[in-house]
Write a structure and sequence with these properties.
The complex is a heterodimer. By secondary structure, chain A is mainly alpha-helical. Helix content of chain A is 64%, strand content 3%. In chain A, helix 3 runs parallel beside helix 5. Classes of the chains: A mainly alpha, B mainly alpha.
């Protein structure tokens, strides 16, 4: 289990796991398979108007989910390369959560409607923040 | 000369830690949230919360800090069990509400999908061609296997996020080995 105590390797594992998930979502939209589309149904609401489309076929994950999982993959890769020694504490995680809540709230009150740019920005921020928070606070700091 | 008044903290073995209460809390919370209509549409949030709760109870009851790999594995077990239970309950509720005649259900789903606009034609075609008008034993088995597989996939990613967060946030003692 020493693999799971090495932050750098774990960063690359997160990159592989969540990168594969995003690639699978892209592949599902590319193939147009409805069976594969339903494979992702427990992970996302899959409302078509909130998803990217490929030749008219919606991706099986919404824009915010794609952004969060991409952020986790990117955060893992950055950690794998950089391996910073500082502890990324609550500040960034709370900031990212707040950004998503503000985006969700502003859309609910009608400030704007279905804006992909804010969802992508807030989702990416949250994904990277979670990856950095978890990896930098790992109990073992070897690697 | 100062004397040490306290004993050094005991390093616990991961295999000796009690998991029953954490498993029950994690699986029951995941199952409950999976059955609440609003909560289960917030992507995989209920899996993440279930995984986090599992690790919160696990580390608190054993008074240890656990490595992230162990946290992901333990939270996956609890979340997967909860997801399976939610799937079974949903299936039983569906059968008791709609019975094995799916004609009305298909019409309802097609109407909902048609409102989504872009990309709806293919999904409607799929539903009309693949979902039978009458559920037989074979179809129920295929759906059950497919549902277990999808629940496992979602549980894996939920546990990876929620379990890692739990391991990073909650530290209740020395790192268990």
């Amino acid at each position: 289990m020493s693999f799971f105590r090495n932050r750098r390797k774990l960063g690359w594992l997160a990159f592989a796991l969540f990168g594969l998930l995003v690639a699978a979502a892209w592949g599902t939209a590319f193939s147009g398979s409805v069976w594969l589309h339903y494979l992702f149904s427990p992970m996302c609401h899959q409302h078509a108007e909130r998803c990217f489309h490929m030749d008219g076929t919606p991706w099986p994950l919404c824009v915010r989910c794609i952004a969060i999982y991409s952020g986790l993959a990117i955060g893992g890769a950055i950690f794998g390369i950089w391996n910073p020694k500082r502890d990324f504490g609550w500040f960034w995680l709370c900031g990212a959560l707040s950004a998503n809540l503000v985006d969700f709230g502003l859309e609910r009150v009608g400030a704007y409607d279905n804006l992909f740019a804010t969802r992508i920005g807030a989702g990416l921020f949250l994904g990277v923040a979670i990856a950095f928070f978890c990896l930098s606070r790992m109990p073992s700091r070897s690697g | 000369m100062e004397e040490f008044s306290e004993n050094p903290p005991e390093i616990r073995n991961l295999d000796e830690l009690s998991f029953v209460s954490a498993f029950l809390v994690g699986s029951i919370s995941t199952m409950t949230m999976g059955l609440i209509p609003i909560l289960n549409t917030l992507c995989c949030l209920h899996y993440c919360i279930g995984a986090f709760l599992t690790i919160a109870i696990y580390t608190s009851s054993n008074k240890v800090t656990i490595p992230v790999g162990h946290a992901i594995w333990k939270s996956f077990q609890a979340v997967f069990a909860g997801a399976i239970a939610a799937t079974v309950i949903s299936g039983v509720m569906f059968l008791s509400t709609h019975g094995t005649d799916l004609t009305g259900f298909k019409e309802q789903i097609v109407e909902e999908i048609a409102e989504q606009g872009q990309g709806a034609e293919e999904a409607i075609e799929f539903i009309e061609n693949v979902i039978p008008d009458e559920l037989d034993t074979g179809a129920i088995i295929v759906l059950a296997i497919f549902s277990i597989f999808t629940a496992g996939l979602a549980s894996l990613f939920g546990a990876a996020i929620g379990g890692s967060l739990g391991s990073a946030v909650i530290k209740r003692g020395p790192l268990a080995q």
